[in-house]
Fold these 4 entries.
Entry 1:
Amino acid sequence: MSAEEYAEIRAGVTAICADFPGAYWRDLDTQQQYPEAFVAALTKAGYLAALIPEEYGGAGLPLRAASVILEAIHASGCNAAACHAQLYIMGTLLRHGSPAQKQRFLPKIASGDLRLQAFAVTEPSTGTDTTQLKTRAERKGDRYVVHGQKVWTSRALQSDLMMLLARTGPAAQAKRRGDGLSVFLVDLRQSIGKGLEIRPLPAMINHNTTEIFFDGLEIPAENLIGEEGKGFRYILDGMNAERILIASEALGDARWFIRTAVDYAKTRIVFDRPIGQNQGVQFPLARAHAETEAAELMVRKAATLFDAGEDCGPEANMAKLLAADASWHAGEACLQTHGGFGLAREYDIERKWRETRLFQIAPISTNLILAYLGEHVLDLPRSY
Ligand SMILES: Cc1cc2nc3c(=O)[nH]c(=O)nc-3n(C[C@H](O)[C@H](O)[C@H](O)COP(=O)(O)OP(=O)(O)OC[C@H]3O[C@@H](n4cnc5c(N)ncnc54)[C@H](O)[C@@H]3O)c2cc1C
């Protein structure tokens, strides 16, 4: 399936993005504020409901369409981090929620009346070793009572609902890695100040991320998704989609960096010649272009497999790895091409450069993808 098949979506998203130029993002970045108007425009146009089935009010599109939406946002110089999770977090609810839960939440998520864009997995003391997480939810009658702490829970202050992964059974008794973890849908509107505290976590980029403290938060048992103790598997199910979509954002960044650098390299005259005539300037851009094209092929392959319902773990991971590297190299080449002006805030390059750096670390770090490929694709001994 080619991107051209979604030319209308690409054009529609790009047209919305034109209303949100660099100055909009620079101001928000300075103030570490949330891009409300941008998210509202995408919601109104229906793009954030792309993956929700039509029976629940969404567009029922394949993952590849969402991939094009996110790539187009980033290729336009905008950033989808404020709302990308609205596209895919609901996947866990869709695949593993009860009919009653889906009826209750999905139509309102599709219309944008409910924001489900916070996903609380990472904890300060266990990091990437998710199966060892410590936040615990204890069943007491018709409720679960939660104690613990999460870190880097992005957009919690801009969400109505949050997906929470918490321990309901001891790690030591787990038959399989990850057994004993459960997924809950937390209604943040009813929880803040009642055993749940959210604190902003200022970061290198404007990501509206937070720390969350649980001290006796009560969650109705009806908000448990699927079976108790199986939550880790449910979360794993959604990770391939997330990786493909984040890779698409990285691709968009790479396209923006290369286009911006090429335009500048053609017009900036130093030593009586355009700087782009020098191989030292030209070659890093040519290499970044080749890497981006290659990464795009892997993103398309992974999305095609995902949409066909086939296993796409290796491809989703490789797509994320290759696209993150392509965007980082393109960012470096773009910044270097601009010389000192690359650091001037008004060019937006330093902002995009900081933003694209994240893809080496989140949602999964480069090393952990390499470890996955080493173990699961190359059949080498597990390294950790
Ligand atoms: C801006 C931002 C937003 C985020 N948003 C969210 C969110 O919304 N929800 C959420 O749950 N999390 C979120 N995260 C967390 C993110 O997923 C983690 O930061 C990431 O998975 C890495 O985990 P860690 O920071 O604990 O690093 P660690 O696990 O402590 O790892 C540190 C470094 O060591 C390396 N390392 C660790 N173990 C190994 C090994 N066995 N072999 C080789 N290298 C290894 C890693 O690659 C990494 O470079 C966000 C993070 C950031 C920075």
Entry 2:
Amino acid sequence: MAENNRFDVLIIGGGQAGIPLAHELAKVGKRVALAEEKHLGGSCINFGCTPTKAVIASAHLAQLARRAKEFGLRIPAVEVDFPAVLDRARQISQEYRADLHKRFENTDNPKLLGGHARFIGREQGAFRLVVGDDLVIAEQVVIDTGTRSTVAQIEGLDRTSFICAENWLESTELPQHLVMIGGGYIGLEMSQFYRRMGSKVTVIEEGGQVASHEDEDVASALQDLLAREGIDFRLKTKVRRVERNDASVSVLVEMANQSSEIQATDLFVATGRTPNTEELGLETVGVKVSERGIVEVDRRLATSVPGVWAAGDIRGGPMFTHTSWDDYRILLSQIAGDGARTTERIVPYAIFTEPQLGRVAMTENEARKTGREVKVARFEMKDNSKAKEFGETEGFIKVVADAKTNQILGAAVLAAEGAELVHMYVDLMNAGAPYTVIRDAIHIHPTLAEAIQSAVQEFD
Ligand SMILES: Cc1cc2nc3c(=O)[nH]c(=O)nc-3n(C[C@H](O)[C@H](O)[C@H](O)COP(=O)(O)OP(=O)(O)OC[C@H]3O[C@@H](n4cnc5c(N)ncnc54)[C@H](O)[C@@H]3O)c2cc1C
């Protein structure tokens, strides 16, 4: 075997952890290879965060233009050029991807290997893998292979074309009537996007609330806001069968033992993510995976096999770009540093609907389950000056704190720019400071940041 197929570290998957880790490990003198079978950038850049937020920006503008009269302006009609909206998003994705490729040009370390990677066994303490058609030997391996859309077990779905996270950017015809299966964060963001582009949208969710991880008051407020834009929600409803007839698709749903049929033009399946672990040959080296296919890791992101690590969505837990990116910092610390950095961290996230839901740490429900004494503060965005002046009065802020220490345990900011605003609580929590620090600070008037302060003033 050629000497140049031997590496200190092989990273499988060019996702949000893999790429920065490859470059940083190379910088500290490790010989590194990164195997990617499709496109550098993984889910986030190619069909996830980047293009979804780019089209959400178009949807935001369309909606604002429709509200022009409220602001004393006349915009006679908003015309949506759907293919152009997707084109813009695609171009941004391609730009990011090209930038990632450039970083691998003119260097042999880290070395970019194109092709599918899988373990085939061990060799004197190292790991044997095949990448494409080539044998590769690596002392350590990092698995960052991400997830793909879960295809729900629904009769007829295997014979029906449908839209999902991986192909929506190629579906250039605006759906007349879209049935969204799944009311999680991808389902909600994309439903609002299609609705604002002009589609009729029906969301089918089998649970009793959308955004199932959130407190009921937050989830129902979000649902109400979206329903007011004309999105039809069917909760506690199961899709039993789908069948395509030429241009239409009939969707048989069941709620409380009552069946009914929805005639739509398109289906979007957003029923969760399935880990890409099946074709990795993990059994050849003994890496343990859960029943769901998640790679089991400890707080250092070490798998059950010393020398094999996992990062990003594949390791279970929070599935976000920023957590995957933080995993790279953990692995840099574990593989080439002092090992101090672990998955003990405060994780924020957002649902990029409008208004956005910015979230950090525990919900009220989760905080109460811990058994500690908690207090909850709530502030309505309609009582914030800037929100009123800019016509962004929807939503509220909810903060949960430990009643004894005044430490914030979690927060939900359902507001314009909620994903930005929540960081004030995130930083406070990371500093280990009580909410009184924000309460006693001065925030600029008029800003939405004043609402962050007003919310914690409600504790007193
Ligand atoms: C529609 C959508 C919107 C999203 N929006 C957001 C958002 O706004 N904010 C946010 O934080 N997160 C968002 N996410 C989630 C985010 O995209 C993921 O959490 C993140 O990309 C996970 O990164 P990763 O490193 O785990 O893997 P990925 O980015 O999925 O990368 C894995 C890579 O591994 C490659 N691969 C897989 N198997 C092999 C193999 N055997 N050999 C070689 N290569 C292989 C794949 O081709 C892929 O490129 C969104 C996701 C979706 C689907």
Entry 3:
Amino acid sequence: MSMPPSSLRSLPPEGAARLRPGEAGSAAQAGSGADAAYVQRRGEIEDYFDRTALKAWEQLTSTAPVGRIRATVRAGRERMRSTLMGCLPQDLRGARVLDAGCGTGALALDAAARGAEVVAIDLSPSLVNVARERVAQLLASHPVAGRIDFRSGDMLSPQLGGFDYVVAMDSLIHYDEADMVRVLESWAQRTRSAMVFTFAPRNPALAAMRAVGRLFPRANRAPWIEPVAEKSLRARLTRSVPQFELGRTQRISSGFYTSQALELVRP
Ligand SMILES: C[S@@+](CC[C@H](N)C(=O)[O-])C[C@H]1O[C@@H](n2cnc3c(N)ncnc32)[C@H](O)[C@@H]1O
């Protein structure tokens, strides 16, 4: 695995993998808003994070030494995590928070440290196991006020119930704009205060890297990231999630990492 998994310079595989029967469930299981393209994409993402990129992702999100390029990605991701946490209240006691696409669980731990009851869910059961183990070790020496319920599955599942806050760090970036907005529409019906998520801002440099990346062997590619034009995303969100207002936004660029946070707040 030579490319940083969170890099926004990761690329589309040449052929779309087919969803294997039973691998990631059906559209109906995913709940409202899921269509066949979403279900197929979800299967590809699960396969990638649970198998191909597991070790690399585990390392990137740890404190183990990494090369120069990954160090820029790690630094950018840390800034993004603190940006997203900056959109949540300091005191989250009594609040229910969804960490959507939790990976190895760092953001869930931040929210629990503020007292939240966190549901942290990821498609990759292996990443969720890593998260459980890491968090259990940390909590043994530094207990926090909140709690984390780690689960593997689809962050879109209505069975997760209602939340005060939903945070999606670099998990919606793997879906196209239409699916991204459909997921937010579905969460909007179950979110009481705010949703904060990231998207990959469309820019010429990213487009060029996507083109160059097609030269990489398939096994080395992250599942592609879908660059989104901010103006178009804002317009679509204004139409599709009218009960929320667009709030703060912050773009983080650090070497091979570029991602933009956007907040949707209930007035
Ligand atoms: C780039 S990683 C980010 C992980 C974590 N949020 C972080 O920032 O460290 C994207 C994660 O989103 C998860 N993901 C993508 N689509 C998902 C879905 N529909 N349900 C649950 N997890 C999903 C992937 O499995 C992957 O672990």
Entry 4:
Amino acid sequence: MIRSRPLTLWGAIVAYSVLLSVLSIARHWGFYSLEDAGAFPQMFWTTLHGKFLNTNLPGLGRFAFTSHNYLADHFSPIILLLLPVYAAWERPEVLFVVQSIMLGLAALPLHGLVFDRFGDRFLATSFAVAWLMSPFVWQSNMGDFHPDTFQPLFIFGAFFYLLRRRPGPYLTLLGLSLLCKEDAFIHVIAIGLFAIAALRATALGALTVALGGLWALATFKLLMPLFGGGMAYVDHYADFGRTLPRVVTRMLLEPQRVLAHLAQPAIRSAIVWILSTLAFLPLLSPLGFMAAALPAMERLLTNLPHINTLSWYYSMPVLPVLFVAALMGTSNAVRLVWRGEVPRNGLRWIGMLLIAATLITGVRLGFGIVGPFALRMPGPTLSRDGWLWVSGRDSVIRKLLSGVPESASVSTSPYIAAHVAGRFDLGIYPYRPLDRDVILLDLYGQKHPADLADYRCEIVRVLSRGEYGVVEYLDGFVYLRRGQATARNAEAAGEVASIYEAEDLIADGFEKVFDLGAGNKQAMAVTRRRSAHLLYGPYVSLPPGRYQVAVRITAHQRSAGDVATLDVTADQGSTILAERTIRGPDLREPGRYQQFVLEFQSERRLHNVEFRVHARGAPDLRVDRINLYPGTLALEVLRESCPG
Ligand SMILES: [Ca+2]
């Protein structure tokens, strides 16, 4: 399979693997990789230090953020093959490289499959290139590290040998794909049924189905329980019932319920998008489409939005089977249109159609090969813009990280976890246990998985209890250690309490934009000239006292006139407490953030206090965040809104 492939294909595979390695490492260095990117390095590290595949990181499922053996949660023994590679480098980056190579190499058997079928290099290369440019492949590649991304190589390889009727390598590759994840039995059974129905390979197909079924039994009843786990999916399908027999019966016997579930807008558009990357060719092969539908249903019928929209890496076993369906669909089209006598031009058109479909979908979705240019990754879990760029703040956190002792247990933000993965006890703040040696948090950054109010309350609670002291408080990063002196705790707590990120306030005419100069790399910006631009909130109650409100803003163009009016109001806007107009000359340097302070005083308790920014027609006015001082009083505010 390897020797006969053309140089252009190898070139494309190498280019893909290098580019995606670089992009996924850049994403990691820019602190966008999430806890799953830390889970695998952590379990390799614990294995090398005597605790087999132990981790407390993955944030989903019944083992979320608790210490467990990974094989209890997900049966992916294939990751053990990576252990020597990790042992050599001991860095998460090495896993991103392996993942990019595995997804790139999948194009090799895909090319072989298409070439075997049509004998046409252009069409075979088009399929391979469409794979390498697919927005869904890119999203899987950029979504941390997951062994599910190894499956395409094995699935394409299995189909390649299935069509050549070579049971040995076919079964070996299917076996490897079963080792990637406990749910792989579903696509293995689907491939077996496809072999029987479409290829009349009855014996081999039946053997495949039996292999898938037996492996599922062995995994859920024997192997996973061995590590303290077992089948744990049923709660993903709450729309269909609470027990496995009920869920399965309803899916089979109540098609109207299945259709109603699939008709939800987000799920419906995920189906349309994944088919449109393949120019809807899979629909021309009903049997191929059915083979992809089986693993697809496992995802689409869940009630978890990141899974049922095939976001993140969840398109993985579905997409390769859909590519095979597209190949079978092309085959059927050729039979229908040209009655088997295909002119070379015809195949060329299909190849170009496929590449055009991939590109158009990529542009429309803003990722795939166009991703680095569009600078955004959509999907519920990957919505942080500008993942490609490392900011000055990232080097601040890197400096703090270098001071964390290797032996310390750490509780941190999800996107910091992968950078401190080499330790036995590593958790996501504020998930339990809360008594780890070190707490390291980004106060401006992403608040996932807790919501903003809970997160702030939790930090203030820790700071006021005094078990932890502030080691360093730098540019919104707070580094706490158990038993440390607490002299700086009040100051840090005040800072925590005082921050209102502009992107968390309510906006009318402002848009959230990526901005390296802003905390959290996000600001709210006026991107179009419109009459009303208003940022407002957060409707807090304040005790009597004297306050300062600092608004951090900039504009990217110089202007002579009014830029913005800032005000502080109470009683839902009806009482104006302070007001200030910012004029063009007040902003000293375009693009550089400045703080503008408003002061006010009240003898009575204030309710529904809002900090508002009215843009006065200046294009590209940006608001990063608003701070309320003094922090001690703001702390009182926070305590009131914090439960317990
Ligand atoms: Ca911000």
